[in-house]
Amino acid sequence: MTRARIFFTGVGGQGTLTATTLLARTALDAGLPVTSGEIHGMAQRGGVVESTLLVGGYKSAIIAPGEADVILGFELLETLRALPMLKRGGFVVGNSEALQPVGVCLGRECYPPLEAVLETAKGFAAQVVLVPCISLAEQAGTAKAANTVLLGAAAACGALPFSVADLTRSIEKYLKPKLVDVNLKALALGAEAAKAGQAA
């Protein structure tokens, strides 16, 4: 049986919970038992959103520090903050583009450079894949599909117990018809970025 503990982190408005639900449905369609939970859910736009997805028969939706097989980071700083959740040798797949918090925009705080986040992540993970999710989503047709770009990258690099084809079926089955085409494009662009080594 395929087993995986996946920790999602991002900020409000990025579709973190939508991505969690889509993966949960993909697992159920594959006949895999799944447990999911929100840690800080439904945050206001810009607030932290964290969720968990445990595939393969876990009884609790809780992931303790050092237990996650995969971190899916929808925002660069939140990916950095979530690294202690990862087990040694796990996967980090994240958005390389920042959504700067208010404190940074006002000049009160500093945002870490991409290179520093990447180096820190490499100290925790066996594999780190960072892709420009927002830019690729805009290429697909809307920045709102950045979450699907990230899922495509994660599936393509082997971080998920599902293939890009599995996610394609889920998008076609579960998303509103008007959202299917743009999300399929976003999924493909994310997968191509991960495979082509465009990841940071």
How would the global form be characterised? globular
Order of helices and strands: EHEEEHEHHEHHHH
> Which sequence of strands runs across the widest sheet?
2-3-1-4-5-6
Which secondary-structure class do the elements indicate?
alpha/beta
Strand fraction band? 15-25%
Radius of gyration over alpha carbons?
Answer: 15 Å
Count the DSSP helices: 8
CATH superfamily: Pyruvate-ferredoxin oxidoreductase, PFOR, domain III
Largest sheet: 6 strands, mixed
In the CATH hierarchy, what is the class?
Alpha Beta
Helical content band: 40-55%
Low-confidence stretches: none
Q: Give the tally of β-strands.
A: 6
CATH architecture: 3-Layer(aba) Sandwich
Can you tell me the number of structural domains?
Answer: 1
Distance between the termini: 32 Å
Name the average pLDDT.
88
CATH topology: Pyruvate-ferredoxin Oxidoreductase, domain 3
For the structure shown, list the relevant keywords:
alpha/beta, Pyruvate-ferredoxin Oxidoreductase, domain 3, 6-stranded mixed β-sheet, 8 helices, 42% helix, Pyrv/ketoisovalerate_OxRed_cat, oxidoreductase activity, acting on the aldehyde or oxo group of donors, Pyrv_flavodox_OxRed_cen
Structure description:
This protein is of the alpha/beta class and 200 residues long. It has a single domain (4-195), classed as Pyruvate-ferredoxin oxidoreductase, PFOR, domain III (Pyruvate-ferredoxin Oxidoreductase, domain 3, 3-Layer(aba) Sandwich). The chain contains eight helices and six strands, in the order E-H-E-E-E-H-E-H-H-E-H-H-H-H. It has helices at residues 16-29, 76-82, 102-105, 114-124, 133-140, 146-156, 164-174, 177-195; strands at residues 4-11, 34-40, 48-55, 68-73, 86-95, 125-131. The protein has a six-stranded mixed beta sheet, with helices on both faces. Helix 2 packs parallel to helix 4 and helix 6 packs across helix 8 (177-195). The longest helix is centred in the last third of the chain and has 19 residues, at 177-195. The model has no long low-confidence stretch (mean pLDDT 88).
